[in-house]
Every structure is written in C-alpha cells, then in structure tokens.
Amino acid sequence: MFYITRRVLFNAAHNLYNPKWSKEKNFEIFGPCSNLHGHNWELHATVKGEIDPETGFVMDLKKLSDELKINIVDKVDHKYINEDVDFMHGILPTTENIVREFWNIIQPILINKYGVQLHKLWLVETPNQSVEYFG
Q: Catalytic: 42?
C-alpha cells in the first residue's frame, strides 16, 4: 500500500464562540480565540492505494490538488468561516470540526471519481497547533 500527500494553502478567519454562552464564558473557555482572528492554514491530504501499472501513480497529485482547490480551498480562502462558508453554518469552527467537514466533502469525490481512498487529512492552524483526521 502506498500513501501520497498533497498540501494546499488558504487564509481564513474564524472565532470560537458558542452562542449559547455569555461573552465572559466564551472568553473563559476559548480565550483570545473567542475574538475574530485569522490564520494561514495548511491542509495536507493523504490518499492510499496501489500503483497503477500504466501511470506509475497511486493518483495524479495535480488532480488531487485540483479537487482540493475546487471543493475546499475556493470555498474557504479569504472567508470568515463562521458566516461565509455554507458547510460550516451552525458548526463551531474548531480545527477539529473544520477538518471533519473537509473530509465529508472530499472523501466521496476521491472514491467515486478516482477510485482512491482518503487516508488522512492533516489541518495545520498554526506552527504549534494542528489536527489529524482519519475519518
């Protein structure tokens, strides 16, 4: 089994704020992240599969990049995730929740269109904070 990874970048803002709580409780739980702020995000998508004997690829990484761009990056880049991103409406935009929603979008596309299995998404929020999701 081979694992191949493509990285894509985007910039987006969010704030961690539970509307059921007071401003004070949100600050107590989420600290300064309860305020609007932005990140330079990195999304690493790893797919797994066997090598196609005709192409020598598990999957064309350019096609993986294109699918990530069209289906994820174009929808979140330079956006306010809490309000501007349809698939995040009503979901607290923690890194964990964001990467899970990315998985829900891209995994069926990769299986149905390219016959490869998404193995992992790794979303880097800051150099010191990231989340890996294996579905």
A: no
